[in-house]
Every structure is written in C-alpha cells, then in structure tokens.
Automatic annotation (TrEMBL):
Sorted UniProt keywords: ATP-binding, Nucleotide-binding, Phosphoprotein
Pfam families: AAA_lid_14 (PF25601), Response_reg (PF00072), Sigma54_activat (PF00158)
Example GO BP: phosphorelay signal transduction system
UniProt keyword annotation of Chloroplast present: no
Protein name per Swiss-Prot or TrEMBL: Nitrogen regulation protein NR(I)
Gene Ontology MF annotations: ATP binding
Domain of life of the organism encoding this protein: Bacteria
Span of the signal peptide: none
Record lineage: Bacteria, Pseudomonadati, Bacteroidota, Flavobacteriia, Flavobacteriales
Domain Response regulatory positions: 4-118
Biological source species: Chryseobacterium potabilaquae
Length: 453
C-alpha cells in the first residue's frame, strides 16, 4: 500500500538526500517542499506522514506543527531539527509529534526506522477501527443471511437459541450454503462479540501442521520452529473458534482436540505450560458426521462433544423464491462495489435462475450474478447474460434443472438416439425399452420442437 510522505526542509541538498533514501522503498511516494507555506497549500493531497524541519525561514517549525494539527489532528508528524535541545524535543512530543530526530550523519536511517514504526502504528489502529466497524455493524440475521423462505426462517430461530448460551454449534449443509456466514452471525450477536472470531479450514492445512496450527508451538519444538507461535485456540480465547470441514480432521488429531475440549486447556507443541481456554466452538462440514462415525472416520466421543446445537442449512434449490432475493442482493452489492448503476433482471432471466438447481448453492449464484453484471448491456440483465458453468458430473448436470419425469425421459431417449446416429433398434436395446416407445416419442410434435432447440 502506497504511503504518501511530505518532507519540508529549506536545505535543498539535505531534503533531496532524504527523498532519495526514502524512495528506495517502492511503497513510499515522496513530496519535497522547501517552505512551510508550500506544505500547507498541498495538504489537500492527504499525506500519510509529514516530516518537518524545525528551522524553516517563512514559518517556524513549531508554528507549522500547530497549523497542521489544527487541520489534521491525527496526522503523524516527525520533527527533524538541528537543535539538540531536550526541552524542545519534549515539548514537541507532548504536543503529539511521533518522533524528534536531530540532524546528523544518522538522520536518514533514524527517519527510515521512525517511519516504519509510525506505519506499524497506523496499521494497528486501522485493524482496531476495522474491528470496531465489524462490531458496530448491525449483524441482524436479515442483513447477513438473506432470504424469506420458511426454511431460512427456521434457521433464524435456531440461531436465536444459540445466542443465549455457550453451547457448541454444529453447522451442516452442502458446499456454498453459507456455513461461515451463520457462524459469524452467531458470534457477532452473542456476548462474545467483542472478542476474536477465528476461522480454521481443516481441509486447507497439511496434516502434519494442524496440531501446531491448533495449539501453537514453542521455539525449537521442531525443525523450522525458529520462534514461538500462538495457535488458533489461544488466539480465539474469550471468543469463538470456527472449525470448518471438521470431518477432514485426522483421527489421531481428533483425540488431541477431544482432550483439549474436555480439559478446557492446551499445551503448545514442545512446551509443558498448560494454557486455560475459554472458547466457544462452532464446527461445520458438508458431510454427515453421524455417518462418518459409523464408517469409523470420526470419533464417536468427539462427535457427542462438538455436535451441540445442530443447524442444517438448506440447499438453495429448496429455498423457494430466495434465489431471486439473493440475486437482487448480489446485483446491488456488485453495483455498489464497482460504482455502477443498479441493474434489473428481465423476467426471462428470472425464470432461468429459478429453473436451475445451483449445485454450488449461494456461492455459485453470486458467481453467476457477478458475471451477468459484467456481461449486461444497458440497465437490464437478460437471459443471455445468465451463464452456468457446472463442474459436477454428468448426472448432476442432467438433474440441474427442475423438470417432470416425462421431460427427463424424453431428453434421455433423444440423447441416446443422437449418440447412436438415430438407430432406433440400438437405442431401444441400450435403454431396455420397446421400439414403439421411441417411435411414439419421435412422432410427438412436442418432441420435435424440443429436438429442434
């Protein structure tokens, strides 16, 4: 991220030397001024940091400092001076200067390090502000979990029940149904909302690193452990840990997770100090955990420990008109993020969306809508702008639209007729049906219309 830095110094050689040195960092955009008035007239450019010389000819450094602070009280200012007076330095620091650097042969290095510290502080403050903004958002379910179907209303009811205790929650559902969104809705509406929400995807972490990711490690615990590391559970202390794709966890590590949850404490890898835990656990999986227990892939004792309050998210195809409600939400979101006028869905486009079953669920719908917004000409998304890119197997593709059994049967027969070069006898043999069934189908006007499409 580019950092815009103003340098104000009436010594052209010294100013150019500082500018040259700082520009070695490609993230720094340096603006050099030799008078205080020139600096003040350019404040509209919104610098991130200002470095001012104490002994300027037109306006004294302390006066320039006050004027900048009057306009931008939170703007970081570093004072560079030829004076080694402790009193002057203390006075500037008391007024809010981020640093006071004396001019000598080390100035450029001291300034370099000072700017790094200021940027780190700015970054930390931004993280705090982002967290406050996240917490101050109205995490009402209607704004984070979009939909009005009866199946979604039942999810709201279960989430409400989860808010009044620290019971573990297990969220199941197909990929793309919004399991992490529900987990966040629970956390940010609970008494733990001011504490961390830490998400861990089991499927994304190599098996030999999961224990360290969970519980952290001490320096020298294993080859490559050059420093102490705080694990995800310790990071989430006081808050919520979200264990996504929990069914992918190795059986050996399942026992260690079970012990940590039972004892409510962990020990870092390579350490011996017990660390107490106060963490709410929310788990998610697209698999049926009870079936995984029966298959021997998941520990029964861990299953009963984490199942808590079960919430099963419905697939998008079972959510009635929620598809169109979500589509409008994603259109508005795309329009806002890309600063374009909101688009409308044509009636044909709406029908196409409603007929498709979305095997990728809400995540797939968002992808389809984002592409449609890009492809649309004018203010309306047409049926031609709606494109589905299925990565499922052939049977999933065949069943991706809601049709009658008769319609599916017709399509299957036509598919094999085409595959067999319209050989009726061969097709009848392959499908184990009578030839008359195929001839009747071929002569049906509706079939001819379908075959011409």
């Amino acid at each position: 991220m580019i950092c815009k830095i103003f340098i104000v110094d009436d010594d052209p050689f010294f100013g150019e030397m500082l500018k040259y040195h700082l520009k070695l960092n490609p993230d720094y955009e340096i603006h050099l001024f030799d008078t205080a008035k020139e600096c003040l007239s350019n404040l509209f450019k919104n610098p991130d940091i200002i470095c001012i010389d104490f002994g300027l000819p037109d306006i004294p450094g302390d006066e320039l400092f006050k004027q900048i602070k009057n306009f931008y009280p939170n703007l970081p200012i570093i004072v560079i001076s030829g004076q080694e007076s402790i009193d002057v330095a203390i006075n500037f620091l008391k007024q809010g200067a981020k640093d006071y650097i004396v001019k000598n042969e080390h100035t450029k290095d001291l300034l370099w390090n000072s700017i790094i510290r200021v940027r780190e502080n700015i970054s930390l403050k931004q993280e705090v502000e982002d967290l406050k903004e996240e917490l101050e958002k109205k995490y009402t379910f209607e704004k984070t979990i979009i939909g009005q179907s009866e199946s979604i209303k039942s999810i709201f009811s279960k989430i409400n029940k989860a808010l009044h205790s620290n019971i573990n929650v297990s969220i199941t559902g197909e990929t793309g149904t919004g399991k992490e969104v529900v987990a966040k809705a629970i956390h940010y509406n609970s008494a733990r909302k001011s504490k961390p929400f830490v998400a861990v995807n089991m499927a994304a972490i190599p098996k030999d690193l999961i224990e360290s990711e969970f519980f952290g490690h001490e320096k020298g615990a294993f080859t490559g452990a050059t420093d102490k590391s705080i694990g995800k559970f310790e990071q989430a202390n006081g808050g919520t840990i979200f264990l996504d794709e929990i069914a992918e966890l190795d059986l050996n590590l399942q026992s260690k997770l079970l012990r940590a949850l039972q004892e409510r404490e962990i020990i870092r890898v390579g350490g011996n100090q017990k660390i107490k835990l106060d963490v709410r656990v929310i788990i998610a999986t697209h698999k049926n955990l009870a079936n995984e227990v029966k298959k021997g892939n998941f520990r029964e004792d861990l299953y009963y420990r984490i199942v808590g309050l079960p919430i099963e998210l419905p697939p998008l195809r079972d959510r009635e008109q929620d598809t169109l409600i979500l589509a409008k939400h994603f259109i508005d979101l795309f329009s806002k993020e890309n600063k374009i006028k909101p688009l409308n869905l044509s009636s044909e486009a709406k029908n196409k969306l409603l007929k498709y079953s979305f095997p990728g669920n809400v995540r797939e719908l968002k992808s389809v809508i984002d592409l449609a917004c890009v492809m649309a000409d004018g203010n309306e998304i047409t049926v031609e702008d709606i494109n589905f890119y299925s990565i499922k197997n052939e049977s999933d593709v065949l069943l991706s639209e809601q049709k009658t059994l008769k319609q599916y049967t017709t399509e299957i027969i036509l598919h094999f007729l085409k595959k067999n070069n319209n050989d009726v006898i061969k097709t009848a043999k392959v499908l184990d049906i009578g030839k008359s069934t195929i001839y009747n189908l071929i002569n049906n006007p509706e079939t001819k219309k379908l075959n011409d499409q």
